[in-house]
Each structure stands twice: as structure tokens, then as C-alpha cells.
Amino acid sequence: MTPLPPAVEQIVNAVYPVPRQLLADQLAGVTRPLFFAFNAFELAFLLWFFYSGLSARLRDALEKKIKNPFAQGASFIVLVFIGLSVVMSPLSFYASFVLSHEFGLSAETVARWLRDWALGIALSTAIVSLVGALFLRAIDRFRAWPLIAATGGAVLILFGSAIYPLFIAPLFNTFTPLPPSPLTRSILDLAAQQGIKASVVYEYDMSTQTREANAYVAGLGRTERIAVGDTLLRGMKPDEVVFVMAHEIGHYKLGHLWLGAFEAWCGLLVAIAFVATVGTHLVTRSPDRARSLADPAALPLVAALLIIFDLVTMPVANALSRNIEHAADVFAATHTHLGPAGVRAQARLASMDLSPLHPSRLVVWYFYTHPPTDERIMDAARRAGLAQ
Fold first, then answer.
1. CB 178 within 8 A of CB 152
2. Over the stretch 305-314, which tens digit does the pLDDT of each residue have?
3. Is the pTM of this model over 0.85?
4. How many domains are contained in the chain?
5. 153: containing domain
């Protein structure tokens, strides 16, 4: 917990009232256990599916109908992934719809939620089935498959980042150019100073899904796009919006996409080494359930091992992410010189998203991909000359 000086606390409380701060703490008290419950249910389903023999029986059934190994793997993944998504749908609905409405974070309709959920499942199924089938073929054909899989994963991250603004984001939201205004000009001028060749700032209808705020600079080269959620534009003052956009532009200027891809590559290497070692051992002990890691029947076990790896290593990944986000915060303060706007922006973001003001160190260590709100506020306050 980082204490706030009285002058800074006064600014924060005006933007993020104490009753709302208490509401954020209540929400966190629900979402933290829910995170572990969600992962526990996923693990239980995947391990049950593998060790019950259902995975092997599904593989056998597909082998009788489909002769191509790639198509067998892809079909297996489609069926298991959709099955898992359906099993998890009640918990997903509670976490992303019911809870958001209970805490006033959303006015989304059930129909809109179902549409986005189904669209997300369809898109994820297509990607996961293709990538998973390629993963199986790599294991079967190449001794250096862990390196190939990790490199392919990093390339996929970059490819996804490149196509996201033009082909994926428009599936879920409507994007319209912001009309000319002093705010639009300020954002474009700041972007141009940092080498972003954009002539348009896009607003998207985030309010159809949530009352939370967001903005981003995404894409590579000709696919670069600056986008601001309508909730952020309505909920923040212009100088606060500029500060938030400066943070996002900072990610671009500081090469965080490339750094993130490299960190992901390193993480994937370790994760795949873990899966190769532990997975091979477990499959060897259960030859009736899977012939090898290249067997589609082993995929539920592989997915379970990846979830376990992610849960164990999440503090490391999040610490790296917090460093990146802190660098973007510093960039925003250094390149805007907006005084207390940075403090107000951080506090208002927390208020709109119901992020706790003073989370515990343990919670930050395990869960937080961004620096905690009190630290971000104090960093902005120091750079604005409001604190030492």
C-alpha cells in the first residue's frame, strides 16, 4: 500500500469517491476467488476427459471417419474446445455479465452478450484448432518441435497484433472517426511526434458492452490504428484523455509489442519444455489413454499442463508486464506535461473500472499486470510536482 499525501488524496477522492473505492474492494473480493474457481473447473474437465478414457474414444471415433492426420487433430480440438466452452458457459456468464451488472459496470443486454460470446467461441475455435493441429504435426515430424512451437507462437502473436485492428476488433465493435476537434488534434500531434503515421482517431462503441474505459494503439505498419472507447471519451476530461492516449502511444514508441513477443517466446520455450517433460512422462504411464504427445487424445492433458504452468508462473509474467506498463506511464507524464491531469486520469480510470485503490502487495504480486492504482497515482503526482 502506497499512502497518498493529503493534497493528492483530495484530488483522488474528488474523482474516485470513497464509497466507490469500497465497492471496488467488494468486487475484488469476489473476482479473486472466482479466478481460481474458473481455472479449477477447467482443469477438472480436461483431466477428467483425459483420464476417463473419453479422449481416447473420441480419437478412435474420428480416426474411423477421417483419414488425414491434420484434419483428425483439428476436428478433435473443435469438439473438445466447444464442449469445454459450453461446460464453462454458466461461470463465464456469471463472471462477465451477472457480476458486471450487479456492480454497475455494464448495461449490456443478454442478446449482445450471447452474440459476443458465440462469436468469440467461433473465432477462438478456428484459431485453436488450426494452431493445435499444426502443433501435433510438429511433434510428430520434428525433433526440435519445442523450438518450432515456441517460435510459431511468437510469430502468431505478432501476426494477430497486425490483423487485430482491421479484421478482429470490427467483429465486436463499430468504429467511427472522431470529428476534428482540439482533442483529436492533440492526440494526432502526439502520435506524429512519436512516428505513428495516423490521420484518424477512431471511437468505438465500448458502451454497448461495458461502462469501463479503454483506449489503444494497435497494429503494425499500414494496419496501425488509434482507437478510443466512447466510455473513456464521455467519462474523462480532454486533458485526461490525452494522458491516457500518451500512455498507449508510449507502448508503441518504446517497442513494447516486440518486447512482449520476445518475452512470450521465452515463456513459451519454458512452457513447452515443461509440457514435453511432464506430459511425456504422464502419457508413458497411460499408454491406453494416449499413444504419445503427438496423439490428439493427449491434447486435454497438454492443455491442463499449460494451465498449471500459467498459474504457477503468472507472478513472473505479471512482473514483466508491470515493468512495461510503468515505462508507458513514465512516457505519458514526460511527453504531456499536463500537471494534475495524470493524477486525475489514473484515479478516474480506477473509478470507471472499479480497480481497488490500495491492493495488498500479495494481490499485486500474483494478479496485477499493471502497477497498482496508488503507485500509478503517486508516480503521476511526483512528475507533476504534487508530491516528493
1. no
2. 999 999 999 9
3. yes
4. 1
5. 6-383
